[in-house]
Structure formats: C-alpha cells, structure tokens
C-alpha cells in the first residue's frame, strides 16, 4: 500500500507540472484550445488529491464500523474523478463558445505547441505507469487516474493537430472547433469512468473468466463434498470477496468438512491472493438443482 501512496503523491506532483506547462503554452499563444487543455489539467490536480486521500482511507484495516474494510473508498475517488472530468468539459465548452464569437490570430504558436507537447509527453509516461502499476496493485483509483491522463494525452494531441491546421489554413475558427472536440471527447471518457466505478460500488460480480476459474478450483479441490451452490463474488479495490454453500454427506464429521473448506480456500488464494472466502457447510438434504457447482 505504501507503493500506491507514492504513486498517488506522484500524480499530484505531475499534475501541477503539467498544469504549469499547459498554462504557459496558453499564455504564449492565446489559444482557446490550449486553454481548454490547461483547464482539464486542473481536474488532474484535484483528482490526484482525491486519489491520494482515497488510497489512504482504503489502506485502513477493518474495524467495528467497517468489518469488511475500507476498500471501496477508491471507487468513490474514481466516481469523483469522472464527475470532475464532466465539469472540466463544461468549462471548456464555455471557452470554446467565446472563441467562436471572437476568433483571433494566435501568438507564438510553434513555441507554445512545443511547450504543450512537452507536457503531453510527461502525461503519457505517467499514465502508462499508473495503469500498469494500478492493475498490478489492483487499485481502481490509480487505474482510473491513469485512464483519465491517457484521455488527456489524446485530447492534447488533437489540440496540437488542430492548431497546426489552423496555422496552415489561416482559419482561426479551427481553434475553438478543436476545443469543442476536446470537450466532447472528455465528456465521453468521464461518463465511461463514472459507469465503471459505479459497477464497483454496486458490488458487480467478478469477470466471467475469473468466475470460471473459481468454479474450476471448487470443483477440483472439494472432493469428498456433494456439491457447491449459490456462489457469490464481488470486488472491492484489491480485495476479492467470495462466498458459497458447500454440501457434504450427512454423516461427515466437522473435522473432515473443515479440512475440505481449508483445501478449497488455500487453492483459491493461490490464484486470488487477496481473496476473502466464506464457506457455509450444509448437510446432504440441502442439495439444490440450480446454481450448482458439481464436485469432481
């Protein structure tokens, strides 16, 4: 968890650096599109602080009030980040509207673009680090932050292309047009981020391929039992919660039933390291005909 906190702190620092560079590019050129890019970077800074706080909260151990831990705090951060992206898009649309009303020739466009592209390169490198390490650490907040920065990279490249076209054609309206395109793109990425994060808050089941793996482990490792049924799963940050009912012969001792449970738990944890597993043992007459996992 200390490593994820360092990455979150790094996001705040990178966010400030990128915002400074993009603001400088806007001051050098007066471009509405570059201003829109800088405005989006303010969201990066705010989101970086939100991620830092969320990861600190998520790292707290389970307590009396939160017996399942604080893992979901990261999803709140990701939802907030999506909302901030939408707010940034609205601000950009406002600036683009002003550009349509009073278009103007850009100042020092090449120098400004070079500064903006330097900021874009910094964002791209950091986005790759966040997404890669966030997936490794199973941190939805870091992955969301990385995806947000990646969307910022795409829009920055689009802005640069638009400004170059404006210079080549001598048509200043391309500047606010590009700013509008940026706003539409980040509205889409923001709504997608909110949807993915809400899935975590709503206790969405594990992906199909992971569920299939859990089924296979239970089926192969629970020998001696009759069946397993009513498997339920959910993901909360780095923690995976799995619970199911295990039916055993009516004359099986508690000791042997517990041995089977231990064997299944250990096998699942070898694959899903952070899994929290709850198994409810039932006698043979509790067998079901639906949602059943057969035992090999």
Provide a descriptive summary of the structure in words.
- The chain has 296 residues and is α+β, with helices and mostly antiparallel strands.
- It has two domains: 2-201, Up-down Bundle (Alpha-lytic protease prodomain-like), CATH 1.20.1510.10; 208-294, Cation efflux protein, cytoplasmic domain (Alpha-Beta Plaits), CATH 3.30.70.
- Helices cover 69% and strands 10% of the residues.
- It is built from eight helices and four strands, in the order H-H-H-H-H-H-H-E-E-H-E-E.
- It has helices at 2-29, 32-58, 73-101, 109-137, 140-169, 174-201, 208-221, 254-271; strands spanning 227-236, 239-247, 275-282, 292-294.
- Strands 3-2-1-4 form a four-stranded mixed beta sheet.
- Strand 2 (239-247), helix 8 (254-271) and strand 3 form a beta-alpha-beta unit.
- It is elongated, with a radius of gyration of 25 Å.
- The chain starts with a helix and ends with a strand.
- The mean pLDDT is 81.
CATH class division of the largest domain:
Mainly Alpha
- Biggest sheet strand order reads 3-2-1-4
Distance N terminus to C terminus?
38 Å
The number of helical runs is 8
Taken from the alpha-carbon principal axes, the silhouette is elongated
Low-confidence stretches: none
- H/E order of the elements? HHHHHHHEEHEE
Which class of secondary structure composition applies to the elements?
Answer: alpha+beta
Query: Could you tell me the number of beta strands?
Result: 4
Kindly report the CATH topology of the largest domain: Alpha-lytic protease prodomain-like
Average pLDDT reading? 81
Give the tally of structural domains: 2
Portion of residues in helices? Answer: 55-70%
CATH architecture of the largest domain: Up-down Bundle
The rounded Rg comes to 25 Å
Fraction in beta strands: 5-15%
Biggest sheet character: 4 strands, mixed
Protein name: Protein p34
GO molecular function: cadmium ion transmembrane transporter activity; ferrous iron transmembrane transporter activity; zinc efflux antiporter activity
Membrane topology: Multi-pass membrane protein
Keywords: Cell membrane, Membrane, Transmembrane, Transmembrane helix, Transport
């Amino acid at each position: 968890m200390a490593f994820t906190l360092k990455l979150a702190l790094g996001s705040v620092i990178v966010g400030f650096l990128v915002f400074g560079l993009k603001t400088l590019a806007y001051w050098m050129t007066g471009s509405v599109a570059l201003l829109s890019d800088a405005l989006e970077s303010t969201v990066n800074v705010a989101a970086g602080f939100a991620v830092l706080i969320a990861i600190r909260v998520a790292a707290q151990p389970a307590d009396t009030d939160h017996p399942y831990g604080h893992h979901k705090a990261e999803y709140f951060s990701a939802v907030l980040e999506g909302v901030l992206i939408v707010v940034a898009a609205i601000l950009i649309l406002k600036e683009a509207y002003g550009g349509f009303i009073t278009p103007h020739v850009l100042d020092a466009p090449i120098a400004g673009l070079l500064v903006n592209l330097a900021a874009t390169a910094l964002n791209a490198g950091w986005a790759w680090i966040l997404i890669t390490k966030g997936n490794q650490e199973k941190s939805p907040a870091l992955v969301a932050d990385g995806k947000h920065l990646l969307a910022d990279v795409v829009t920055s490249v689009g802005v640069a292309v638009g400004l170059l076209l404006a210079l080549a054609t001598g048509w200043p309206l391309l500047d606010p047009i590009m700013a509008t395109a940026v706003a539409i793109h980040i509205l889409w990425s923001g709504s997608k981020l909110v949807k993915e994060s809400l899935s975590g808050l709503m206790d969405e089941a594990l992906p199909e391929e992971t569920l299939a793996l859990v089924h296979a482990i239970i089926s192969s490792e629970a020998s001696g039992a009759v069946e397993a049924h009513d498997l339920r799963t959910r993901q909360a940050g780095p923690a995976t919660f799995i619970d199911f009912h295990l039916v055993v012969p009516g004359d099986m001792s508690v000791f042997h039933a517990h041995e089977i449970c231990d064997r299944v738990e250990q096998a699942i944890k070898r694959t899903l390291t952070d899994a929290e597993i709850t198994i409810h043992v039932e006698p043979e007459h509790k067998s079901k005909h639906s949602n059943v996992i057969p035992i090999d």
